[in-house]
Amino acid sequence: MTEESKDLKFNCFFGLINFVVVFVIVWFLWYVFMNPDAVMKLYTPMYGFALIAVFVSGIILMANVVECSTLYDRIVKSDNPIVKGIILTIIAFLLMIVLNYIVFWGFLGKLGIAYFSPDSIVVSGGIGAEPFSARENASIAILYFFTAFLWIALFWGVGAGRWPWQNNSYGVQVWSRIFAIIFFVNIIYVILFHPHVCYLFYPAQNKAGVEPWWGFSGTGSAFFGLGLALCSMFWILSSDLLWEGYPWKVMEKDGEGTFLKSVATFLATLALGIITVYILTRIMNIFWDEAFMGGQYTDGTDFRYIHAGEICGFFILAMFILKHYFNNFPNLPKIWLRSIIRTVIAIVGGLLIYLFYYSPASTFFLAKVPGVAQPDDKPLVWTLLFLSVILIQSEFFNGWPLKRK
Length: 405
What we know:
Elements: H1 3-6, H2 12-34, H3 46-65, H4 68-76, H5 81-111, H6 118-124, H7 131-159, H8 170-192, H9 194-198, H10 223-242, H11 259-288, H12 301-325, H13 335-357, H14 360-366, H15 379-396
């Protein structure tokens, strides 16, 4: 019997109500911060895209890497989930401000890599060095960096966990994980994303970054890497949330990760991500014919790759909804059977979310551009905003009010 099936107090009807409330909260946040016709108008779209990616990364950093929830419980020793949730949410918001505006715009962008700071891009001059375009290009670079961070941080939680520092103190574990994750994030960013960012400018910064090497994909855009990362993340999160850690769990030693488990998890989910990208792009060929370099909208190869990632983003959102609001239904005795059914539900749910997002209803609620493949439409912004609210409730508020001790 699984842990979920033992939770007899869980009520899926209340979960449905909770989901509806969360949907309304996400809509309100979108209206205030992202809606291009409302208050803050951060959805330009790359500026808002980068901010929400940094925010979600901060939540993952606090929840999975630093384990702030556990640390809070140790220090405060209080059972009040509301106060705890509010405090940790404020910290996550401040962390987003510090990372985006101080670390990248103010420090790295001014003392190291100019394209991380809109001000540095403007000062450098040249074509496109005007405030709006500069902010969009800086946001693209920051988005790519934190995509790499999410990929490695989520993988590390599933594949390595506390290994190889499980016998050390909490402080050693946290700092070691942070530095190890950042090390691999830098490698992935430099290889998969940095070359494209260097070629966003004219003249291209060909002494700072090589020409994008993934020409075999039919595009020079790093949307290739973005789609690949998101498709791989879908399988990482599936094995964590839907498959209860399997099949990588069989490679653990004394309940902790191992070198073999880490390598196998990364390579296997990467391979599954590549296969997913291939399948999704082939399906798109059926609807829109073959893509080609320089093609506009749905004909563009770059769009096909990011759209594969966007589709997996919908799958991931459906996966989190199933896990947190419907108790990871179904909770059957056999792990392989319940894992398969949950995965099918997540995929079908993701397709339903896809249909909603591209429907007139979403155009009305989100003030998005109608149709598919519009330059000013990035579904991942809404998806990440939705995921951030779910993560805050589950990780910072301990699932309150749906789950109570």
